[in-house]
Amino acid sequence: MADLKDLSRDVLAHSDIVKTITSFIPATKKGRNYWAICPFHDDTHASMSISPEKRMFRCFVCGVSGSEANFIQRYEHISYFEALKKVAEINGYQDERLVNKVNVKPIDSKKEPLLKCLSDLTLYYQYALNTEEGKVGLDYFESRNLDEKVRYKYKLGYAFKDGKATCRFLQSKGHSVKTIEDIGIASLSGGEYTDRNQGRVIFPIADADGNVVGYSARRIGNSDEAKYVNSPETYLFHKSNILYNFHIAKDKARTAGYIYVLEGFMDVFALGKIGIDSAVAIMGTALTKEHITMLRSLNVEIRLCLDGDLAGQTAMMNISKALHEAGLEVRVVDNQNSPKDPDEILNEDGPDALRAYLNNLISRVDFALNYFKNSNPLTTTNQKKALIKQFIPILLGINSQLELDSYLRKLASVTGFEAESIRELLKDARNKEEYDNPVDAIKDFHPERKAMRKLELAERELLYQMLNNSEAVSFYEQKIGTFYDEIYRQVANYIVDYAKINDELSTIDIISSLEMSDLDNKDELINELTKISFENTHNKKCTNALLDGLLQSIDEEKERIFEKDTLEQSLVGKDPLEKARIMAEYNRRKMRKMQKESEKKDGGK
Fold first, then answer.
1. SS3 state of residue 51
2. What is the pLDDT of residues 536-551, one digit of tens each?
3. Going by DSSP bridges, is the β-strand pair 56-59/48-51 parallel, antiparallel, or unpaired?
4. Element (H, E) at 146
5. What is the pLDDT of residues 337-358, one digit of tens each?
6. Do residues 429 and 388 touch, judged by C-beta distance below 8 A?
7. Helices 454-468 and 522-534: angle between axes, nearest 10 degrees
8. Predicted pLDDT of residue 332
9. DSSP code at position 199
10. Looking at residue 32, what DSSP letter applies?
């Protein structure tokens, strides 16, 4: 552990926390700090602060906080050591200690046999495609211009019509019936298990790590059967957190600076054929919070390209809004007048036409204006007013005055109303909104300004001083001994222990040390430490007068609490008359004490 702490200190000392965290999520500079959409809760405003000066981050809503290594550890669900390696890699820092230690990801005992079964099944489907029976599937793929290279890249296959044989094959490979059921393949038919995908062409679906976790099976030819049979929800397969081709697209997107969000498999294949692998498909589902989190992790521009029909345009309208509210940069492929999807454009018009189509990008606001204009009749004054009313919420989200002026002119051109008249409507709408700027609200939010008892304020102030001054640590040990607040007490004791084995105090090093500890409530302690560090109401200088004043406040408040507890205990089981007598005596003692303190102060003047 000592070696890991030394390594952590060295890696973090040679890193830039802003550079590290913005490799995963976008952030905007506001004053001295950077602000970002928090990826650890359902955040719609920039509630996470990143402090270059303090070298730590903190979300003012969910409370998650710590060092940049802790950010990566949480974000990617990896060990602290692996997170340190990523910090070093991002910042160009080399250390042989990062190479020598081999760290193996913990294996999920339930997940491993399922993945092995799916891997064997995928190979079986690929094999079946190249058999005599599988020629019908091969012919289908070739009719869609999916050559051998594409079929191999995306592991396309075919499921034999004898679905029982598929299940027997998997059992012969050592997979139990329970496992075959758990991957969502087996269905009971005539007392035997059969492959629910039988007689169909197979599109394997992978998770973010490239492991096959499910399938989409398409029928061949025309029949009354469903066109697609998709894997059901399983332990591994959840539609809400899978984007088709994400495992390939994620690294390509970071290099390219963008990612296309498409409708289905064929569109992904079409872009792949012209060398654009930074593309994913939503496979006909709504974009979920998990999908947005996945896209946010890439820190690139999102380019929406769904079908040009009304359903596709409506989906793009909803998705572009959700992405914008999540703080992602988004543009839209302007395909409103095109009934063709990318696959059709490539096959009918060629690669150059597809590239030109994909590069015809417009802002989400321009897209919204076109959408409202094309989906609403504009023949009457009321219809034009309705269009403006629909567009007002989008205009409210535009921060650039020049951009706003441009869209006001466009809206005026479409509706025939004067731009200044629309601006007045916008002002009225803005005045009616009962909210403050979320970032400004967070910047002005200080939990320490809540009505705290004097004791809590004093203990919190001393804890801040202990983070930055060894004299305050010694003062705590010699004069205080223990805090009344349990969390403060645990944090203080950890700082005392840290100071005994480290010559210098550093808040970020203390937090990093906690991140590597085995304490059950380390996250709670880290969050409290970070919260205190981000507060700007503490005394910057640790003087003897400050420490003595804190001691007096702590002693006085502890005595007051003790007296109150003693009083409450003395009232237990007493009748009303006796309670009244005890309370009267308590109040007389309190008054005499206050009088003596007043006389003492007057005498000292």
1. strand
2. 778 888 888 888 888 8
3. antiparallel
4. none
5. 677 889 999 999 999 999 999 9
6. no
7. 90
8. 92
9. T
10. T
Residue 173 has pLDDT above 80, yes or no: yes
User: How far apart are the C-alpha atoms of 457 and 450, rounded to whole Å?
Assistant: 10
Contact yes or no for 356/326 (Cβ under 8 A): no
Find the farthest-apart pair of alpha carbons in the chain and give their distance in angstroms, rounded: 109
Note the pLDDT of residue 292: 87
Q: Which two tokens stand for residue 4?
A: 């890991």
| pLDDT tens readout for residues 554-571 | 887 777 776 766 767 777
- C-alpha 30/C-alpha 34 separation (Å) is 6
Determine whether 101 is exposed, middle or buried from the number of CB atoms within 10 Å of its CB (0-12, 13-18, 19+).
Answer: middle
Q: Across the beta sheet with 279-281, what order do the strands follow?
A: 279-281, 258-262, 301-304, 330-333, 361-363
Distance CA 293, CA 289 (A): 6
- Residue carrying the six token digits 């793009």: 316
User: Residue 33 forms beta bridges with which residues?
Assistant: 30
The mean pLDDT value for 514-532 works out to 85
Choose the weakest-confidence range: 170-184, 216-230, 382-396: 382-396
Residue found by looking up tokens 């059969």 in the block: 194
Task: Name the amino acid, one letter, at 597.
Answer: E
Q: Cα separation of 12 and 561, whole Å?
A: 43
Pairing of strands 192-195, 228-230: unpaired
Check: CB of residue 303 under 8 Å from CB of residue 331: yes
Question: Is the Cβ–Cβ distance between 21 and 33 less than 8 Å?
Answer: no
What are the φ and ψ backbone dihedral angles of 23, each rounded to 5 degrees?
-75, -15
CB 216 within 8 Å of CB 265: yes
Q: What is the mean pLDDT of residues 385-393?
A: 79
Q: Are 203 and 156 in contact (CB under 8 A)?
A: yes
Report yes or no: 244 and 230 within 8 Å, Cβ to Cβ.
no
Identity at 576, one-letter amino acid code: P
pTM: predicted TM-score of the whole model, two decimal places:
0.59
Is residue 191 within 8 A of residue 185, CB to CB? The reply is: no
The pair of three-digit structure tokens given for residue 21, joined into one six-digit string: 């965290």
In angstroms, how far is the first alpha carbon of the chain from the final one?
Answer: 57
Nearest C-alpha neighbor of 201 from the set 237, 233, 171, 156: 156
Q: Which two tokens stand for residue 139?
A: 């012919």
Exposure pattern of 277-303 as b/e (b: 16+ CB <10 Å)? bbbbbbbeeebbeebbbbbbbbbbbbb
CA distance 447 to 435: 20
| Beta-sheet pairing, 192-195 with 186-189 | antiparallel
The Cα 138–Cα 158 span in angstroms is 8
Q: With beta carbons less than 8 A apart as the criterion, state whether 301 and 331 touch.
A: yes
